[in-house]
Automatic annotation (TrEMBL):
Record-linked CDD domains: GGDEF (cd01949)
Domain of life of the organism encoding this protein: Bacteria
Signal peptide, first to last residue: none
Domain GGDEF: 254-384
Organism, scientific name: Craterilacuibacter sinensis
Reaction(s) this enzyme catalyzes, per UniProt: 2 GTP = 3',3'-c-di-GMP + 2 diphosphate
E.C. no: 2.7.7.65
An individual GO BP term: cell adhesion involved in single-species biofilm formation
Protein name as catalogued: diguanylate cyclase
Gene3D superfamilies listed in its UniProt record: 3.30.70.270
Taxonomic lineage from the root: Bacteria, Pseudomonadati, Pseudomonadota, Betaproteobacteria, Neisseriales
Record bears the keyword Secreted: no
Length: 418
């Protein structure tokens, strides 16, 4: 797999030099390494192009009925007409396919799109072989044999990996091969072999075009989702990722935590040392956090010196542990050599009973301001009564101590963080 993907990388990376990373070469072979945002956007594109393809087939398929009536025997064209009307109805249903974007739904849409003409080709081929057509009728009937060629050429409009292209093309190639078995019996196999080889060649060209589209999409998505200064996710892409993660969290009943991080006294850096020094501090922060993120955690630059850390499948206590690890290792340095500090507010979907991702961000943002008003360099976390007695946790990780301030009627507690 690695050799194949590396070969494709070497051949295709020249299309957009410097736009893709070498470790993304496996993305060309299999979709399993694609990040959720990439998968979501690719699913949207595939579904939209499936509907476009289906619309063209829904319109063009019944138009050929007139040609069949004028050229084919009276006992044949009614059967083909019924078959065409059924296929057109199926394509029309696919045009109305408006399921939520996701790779599973995209695969279903593509499988349906290519199954309809494949079944149409097999049935029409069986009907046509019952007749000994001559002249114009034979020429018109020969046109049905070109359907698999058109179908496989259509792969070129979809951004697919090598594995996906093979998975969708194989049934069409098998169907065409089975439909041509009588050529081997009748002795006309040389002509059929040439046709089959041409079909495989078209499949190869379409696959290359699909992978090229995937390379282009990877480059464009990579440019669009990243903050140009720090290299972490931009706010727009962060909102899209958060919407997907929130939906998945609700669907699976798993926790989803956020940490809203705001650098302390950042304006002083810009005022004293200039904006270039401020940019270096931001880059240093992102580098420090990114080096310690768990797989699946997502850092987004929300605006200016504000960052949003998305922690999927993470409850309140786990988010504090993750943040403790970040704080203890440091958030970079200021231009004067002192360590950079930040005020952070956290929120969790289940404990905070949030109905949408906007509410979740608002909760984390509000607690960040509470942390800032409490003296900065703190993390403010609120655990609801569903998890434990309501409390506001302010953690000073410079001292590696988490102090818990509760309401007057509740007792105070301290938890040492290793």
């Amino acid at each position: 797999m690695y050799k194949i993907s590396h070969f494709l990388w070497l051949r295709l990376s020249g299309l957009l030099p410097g736009e893709l990373m070498p470790d993304q070469s496996s993305w060309l072979f299999s979709p399993h390494q694609h990040m959720p945002l990439m998968a979501h956007r690719r699913a949207c594109m595939i579904i939209n192009r499936v509907r476009l393809f289906a619309f063209l087939f829904a319109v063009l398929t019944p138009l050929w009925i007139v040609v069949d009536i004028l050229t084919l025997p009276d006992t044949l064209w009614p059967q083909l007409m019924a078959l065409r009307l059924l296929a057109s109805a199926a394509f029309t249903g696919l045009v109305c396919y408006k399921r939520q974007a996701g790779m599973l739904n995209a695969y279903r849409a593509m499988a349906t799109l290519f199954a309809i003409p494949t079944v149409f080709y097999v049935i029409s081929h069986l009907l046509l072989t019952r007749y000994s057509l001559q002249g114009l009728s034979a020429a018109i009937s020969a046109g049905y044999a070109f359907l698999p060629f058109v179908l496989l050429a259509g792969f070129a409009i979809f951004p697919l990996t090598l594995l996906e292209s093979a998975a969708f093309a194989t049934p069409v190639l098998v169907a065409y091969g089975l439909a041509g078995l009588e050529h081997w019996v009748s002795g006309s196999w040389p002509a059929f072999s040439a046709e089959y080889w041409l079909l495989i060649l078209i499949t190869g060209v379409s696959t290359l075009a699909s992978i090229s589209q995937l390379v282009l999409m990877m480059a464009l998505v990579g440019q669009a989702i990243r903050d140009p200064l720090t290299g972490c996710y931009s706010r727009r892409s962060g909102e899209e990722i958060l919407a997907l993660q929130f939906e998945q969290s609700v669907r699976t009943g798993t926790p989803l935590s956020l940490a809203f991080i705001d650098l302390d006294h950042f304006k002083q850096i810009n005022d004293r040392y200039g904006h270039e020094a401020g940019d270096q501090v931001l880059k240093s922060l992102v580098k420090a956090i990114s080096a310690r993120l768990r797989r699946g955690d997502i850092l987004t630059r929300w605006g200016g010196e504000e960052f949003l850390l998305i922690l999927p499948n993470t409850d309140c206590q786990q988010s504090l542990q993750a943040l403790a690890r970040l704080y203890q290792q440091g958030l970079g340095t200021r231009p004067d050599g002192n360590p950079q500090t930040a005020s952070t507010g956290t929120a969790e979907r289940i404990n905070d009973d949030c109905n949408n991702w906007q509410d979740l961000v608002a909760r984390a943002d509000s607690r960040m301001y509470q942390a800032k008003s409490s003296g900065r360099d703190t993390i403010n976390c609120h655990a609801s009564a569903h998890a434990r007695p309501a409390c506001a946790i302010c953690c000073n990780y410079n001292q590696s101590i988490c102090s818990t301030e509760k309401a007057p009627e509740q007792r105070a507690e301290s938890v040492a963080l290793g």
